[in-house]
Amino acid sequence: MSASDAVSATPVRRVWRPLLVSLTIAGIVAVLFGVPWWTLFAAGAAWPTPVVVAGTVLFGTALVAFPVLMVLGHGGRRLDWAARIGDTLLGVVWVLFVWALLGTVLRLGLGLGGVPDPARSRLTAAVVVAVTLVLLLWGHVEAMRVPRVRRVEVPIRRLGAGLDGARVVLLTDTHYGPIDRAGWSARVVATVNALEPDLVCHTGDIADGTVDQRRAQAAPLRDVRARLARAYVTGNHEYFGEAQGWLDHMRELGWEPLHNRHIVVERDGARLVVAGVDDVTAGGSGQPGHRADPAAALAGADPELPVLLLAHQPKQIDAAVAHGVDLQLSGHTHGGQIWPFHLLVRLDQPTVRGLSRHGDRTLLYTSRGTGFWGPPFRIFAPSEITLLTLRAA
User: Fold this and answer.
1) Residues of the chain with CATH 3.60.21.10
2) pLDDT in tens, 64-85
3) Which CATH class is domain 148-392?
4) Is 129 exposed, middle or buried (0-12, 13-18, 19+ CB in 10 A)?
């Protein structure tokens, strides 16, 4: 290929790439809506014509409205009413899709048992709808409640005796957003303070939106109490809005924004390096001075001291291992949030939840998240406020 051919091919690729992405997304959305429609109305149930027409109009309207609502809610305009409707619709159709797929197993079983259509398909449709309604109701209650406290003991080999028993509370993925959760935020803070922590950490995805949009929901974070420090790092969602704005605002609220830097905390003569790095997506965000840089975060730290690293995504663990980190705290995965989405999350992350070991020294704790993103549902993936008790091994 000549140089002129290469130059002319570049604009062609630029034209086709967004078109292919758009077609892929459109195909996924069509399948998400199409499979439940087929299971409920077109799989041999032989419903009366008015029922089929009404169901088809309902699913067709939702299919057309969904991308519009998501663009209005999460695009440049950030209309909260559109985001609330679009996000809820996404959660509903995902649960319907999953259980419509599982409903095929029920249809096969009924068929093997000698149950003919339309009774077989009507019973399958009824079960899919009933299970979906129950799960959505329960999942919404789970999403909106104050998270349960998850208690974990973490042995750290290099931890000094003075920090044995130190209490670290982890918050992450609060996702203050289109649904006003200022009251929920205050109750979360009250729960944290009741744990009497030495250190409180927030590992990012604090909000969906700007500081001005979510100021009231984040305001209770000012009242978090910790004996030694309160530390915060950015998540990927900060880079959809104003990451630097949130770093500055958390400083105003009295937190330590660990923007590729560290602090040292001390108790009873024992010291611990608490470091933080930007989210792994920061480097491609276009925001000057933002990128994940563990070397900068640990520059000047005493190499003999144990290191606690805050990094939003679990997959940042490889860099933590390379830099001799003892414990990394992360979020991002939400534990999958709505079953069985955790299977897709696992394709991108080394772990979805809980404590895991990486290399000889490094431990990773991945929280299922304190809040939720988008669909106001949590199904088989409960939220958590994590209390980690550090133990000198």
Assistant:
1) 148-392
2) 999 999 999 998 889 999 999 9
3) alpha beta
4) middle
